[in-house]
Amino acid sequence: MTETSGLRALVTRNLRQSGIYVAFVAIVALFAVLTDGVLLSPGNLTNIVLQYSYILILALGMLLVIIAGHIDLSVGSVVALTGAVSAVLVIQKGMPWGVGVAAAIGVGLLVGAWHGFWVAFVGIPAFIVTLAGMLLFRGLTLQVLGNISLSPFPAEYQKTASGFINGLLGGPGYDTFTLVIAAVGVVGYGYSAVRGRLARIAYQQAVESMPLFVVKLAAIATVVMAFAWQLANNRGLPIVLIILGVLIMTYALITKQTVFGRHIYAIGGNLSAAQLSGVKVRWVNFWIFVNMGMLSGVAGVVYSARSNGAQPSAGNMFELDAIAACFIGGAAVTGGVGTVVGAMVGGLIMAVMSNGMQLLGIDQSIQQVVKGLVLLLAVAFDVYNKRRSAQAR
């Protein structure tokens, strides 16, 4: 293979992922101009983190489900149910807020095990199982709440989604701690990227040129530190951002460095080959849905803390936002393809679009139309790429 053809193959292979980043920057720049800079103001960036963190949490779990070739339509209802259980225990029963958090996550785990049993061991398609779950758990939410809303949560519970860490290291007019945490994250990402590049070189895989690699790292570092600077000049580091950051690093490690992660990709990429290779497909599928239930419980806590209560209608359409984040971020409809970073960028695209349109006063119905078109185009692009790859072979 010549150097030119190798570079062409590398560009083709990474076209979609690179396109997502370009699209994200373009969308941010567009709405920054249209809103006269309000989109990138410290207060608004903080609000984006607080308002859309639970969608990103759900997208992490949905990514694993989609990579394995499944779908989960029930997560919005599970968010509502877990928040309702927490509200009943903490608000009605007067139990400590930690009990409510543990109960919500525990209910999420049970729901995930329920779905995993029917999908993995009974063999019912996940679409049907989770569609039934969407109805079942929404009904249970109404039963738990008695068709009423419960509020307010104690202040400690609310801090899960609305609290901040600031002032630990001081700073002349800004929060130094936020900048330090961001810098540590940038260094960690850079170290991981360098290790990954060296590993690909060792296995004689194609990599981008060193100047391009350095520019990419510098661009990411600049964006992260600029974002941190804006947060530091507002209220400091949101607690929910710390939770989300830990989850992102954990799931990036799971998908890239663990046997379980490789088995998920194997199942979604070629189920028959995975079975012949000794992958315990049933158990992998089971734990994928248990994980999705657990993250739905975490999202339920964050959302209920953010809204300071539990409502029967909570979590409506959350599953579609999480699915859209994964597909826009590069996950393949047929499974076997997708990254944590891509899903997070996809989720941020949806968040920036929603926030930007709200700042512009665009009607909610138009917002839904725009988001639907973006999702359709993302999936169409995936189908187009697959057809081109098939024709090339």
From TrEMBL:
Domain of life assignment: Bacteria
Gene Ontology MF annotations: transmembrane transporter activity
Stretch forming the signal peptide: none
Record keywords: Cell inner membrane, Cell membrane, Membrane, Sugar transport, Transmembrane, Transmembrane helix, Transport
GO CC field: plasma membrane
Topology within the bilayer: Multi-pass membrane protein
UniProt main location, coarse: membrane
Subcellular location per the Swiss-Prot or TrEMBL entry: Cell membrane
Ranges annotated as spanning the membrane: 20-41, 48-67, 73-91, 98-118, 124-146, 167-191, 211-229, 236-254, 286-305, 326-353
Function summary: Part of the binding-protein-dependent transport system for D-xylose. Probably responsible for the translocation of the substrate across the membrane.
Protein name: Xylose transport system permease protein XylH
